[in-house]
Amino acid sequence: MSHATQPLGAPVARREGREKVTGTARYAVEYHPAGRLYGRVVPATVARGRVTAVRTADALAVPGVHTVLTHENAPRLREPDDPVLAVLQNTRVPHRGWPVALVVADSLEAARAGAAAVRVEYESAGHDTVLTWDHPGMYTPETANGGYPAVRERGDAEAALAAAPVTIDATYTLGGLHNHPMEPHASTAWWADGHLTVHDSSQGSTTVRDSLAQAFGVDRDRVTVVSEHVGGGFGSKGTTRPQAVLAAMAARLTGRPVHIALSRRHMPALVGHRAPTIQRVRLGADRDGVLRAVSHEVATQTSRIKEFVEQAAVPARVMYASPHSGTAHRVVALDVPTPSWMRAPGEAPGMYALESAMDELACALGIDPVELRLRNEPAVEPDSGRPFSSRGLAGCLHEGARLFRWYDRDPQPAARQEGRWLLGTGMASATYPVLVSPSAASAHAAPDGSYTVRVNATDIGTGARTVIGQIAAAALGTPQENVRVEIGDSDLPPGSVAGGSSGTASWGSAVHHAATTLAHRLAEGGTVPPEGVTATAGNEKETAASPFARHAFGAHFAEVAVDTHTGEVRVRRMLGVFAAGRILNARTARSQFIGGMTMGLGMALTEGSTMDPLFGDYAEHDLASYHVPVCADVTDLQAHWIDEDDHHLNPMGSKGIGEIGIVGTAAALGNAVRHATGARPRSLPITPDTLL
Ligand code: MOS
């Protein structure tokens, strides 16, 4: 099919696909301004304490080393809005891996040799890095990540649980997880005539521009941040990261461009991660499976310098009808790196616990797990009483069960064996909120009949450029090849972060409005003047409060084989069905869903960050020990969707698809392991040793 005839929703190929596969797409460290220097972070080797001396003589003697930045000579920052950016400003070490020096050299090799030669002395105090349910210092915060109230109560969950004929009371334990995008965090920075330019691997360069301007005390229009191509982020590049600040500091001190690519070893401590959670879920139900009470309590950790609370109990406010509900988060500040966003923060760990508990309830009642969920479909959003703009969960459950041939299963656990393999199937629901953030866009018509749209969107590998071109082309009534798309530069109209599954809805709304306005102007105005015609627009309408509860939903189905000799779990097939509004590009959407499901497979079976209490550090510092799933782990993985016609979203009718694929996947796999073996996993990852 020619692109000219492709409507919105068609599987249009990525605009930058050829550049990427031929290696000509340039990433943040591939800009080579003349005189570029290389920076290498020296991480703290204690988990709590104070730097008493940084001895730099040996490092400065390494050939090629220019300078060593420490708390003594680094440029002073205005107190950054984000405490994780206040690097080299004082002697405090809030966690192991915190930057205590930066070596700047002519080459990467010299910078590394210099960093190894820096001698740092510490006064260290005993550290505390291990989360427990009733940890001393545990407190109830005001809000959890996303601004959600930390505690919500409706009815009397305790009394309803006590009175319920059937109850489940289970505690699920999740360790830390790290985002580990393929491209490590990297920045190339230089100052020229008081203007700071940074090529940064980020999910939103408008945000990075604003925080650098604030930290360095310069006007926003004196800072340009470019994120042209980004090799993944999964939330870890959604906020400004220390390497951007360090590169800008070193560039200011040396008067030269400075380039910092974080070593994979340095990432676990410096770029955020999914905090560990301990989650207690209690369900009370009648014998027919109708829920009387839902209680979801979360204990989690943050760092000593910043409060970040993984909002894992929030999806329980959305999922199932229940007259009584209690959802609560508690948090404790430990001597650990600051947690942050990792794909579907809140929903991914929270739905692991809730959907595992729902499976436990289904088993206790002898009710099919799909049927149990259908019996608890709410008429309105349970916690708020608001109507849903659309709620596609039941459709996903029905369609998924049909496509997966779910009802072929014998519900009896440990009943299917093939040689040494025990086979089982499991399912779980998924949900993710519809989020929209302020963005602006311009659309320009040239006299030759071509168009250019500009918006500071970021393409983190998702296909943002492509879908923006489709949205503009649809609004302009022109083939998408006729539309140039400029994104990834903070000098463009401001765009929101590529996060919260909100990018397409946020940028796309602004692009749609700008393009529509332009089309009207052109229709009125006759011929296009030599300078062209430009229209600009924001997305104020879409970011205004909605009277509707707006969420995407999904259903996951999985079949696993468990080796009775070794405890190895192999995923034979996974199938997800999603209801996420209108799908705008079938090709890139499918990749997003499958990518999310693959990351959920990792969460279930292979990925884990293990806190070493002796060193106060996550033990996995490379991809040899932090096991991201590889192709051999993913054999038969299918994503399907049900297009929804929802008019309470945005002009495109889209909900957001980046994160829902990871939500519920781990529960579906855990439930399949339980069906295969009869053993109920309550912690992740489900490694062989936990099944023997
Ligand atoms: Mo996503 S964790 O909101 O980048």
From TrEMBL:
Annotated protein name in UniProt: Xanthine dehydrogenase family protein molybdopterin-binding subunit
Record-linked SMART domains: Ald_Xan_dh_C
Keywords of this entry: Molybdenum, Oxidoreductase
Domain of life per record: Bacteria
Disordered: annotated segments: 1-21
Membrane-spanning parts: none
Pfam families: Ald_Xan_dh_C (PF01315), MoCoBD_1 (PF02738), MoCoBD_2 (PF20256)
Domain (Aldehyde oxidase/xanthine dehydrogenase a/b hammerhead) ranges: 22-126
SUPFAM superfamilies in alphabetical order: CO dehydrogenase molybdoprotein N-domain-like, Molybdenum cofactor-binding domain
Species the sequence originates in: Streptomyces halstedii
InterPro entries: Ald_Oxase/Xan_DH_a/b, Ald_Oxase/Xan_DH_a/b_sf, Ald_Oxase/xanthine_DH-like, AldOxase/xan_DH_MoCoBD1, AldOxase/xan_DH_MoCoBD2, AldOxase/xan_DH_Mopterin-bd_sf
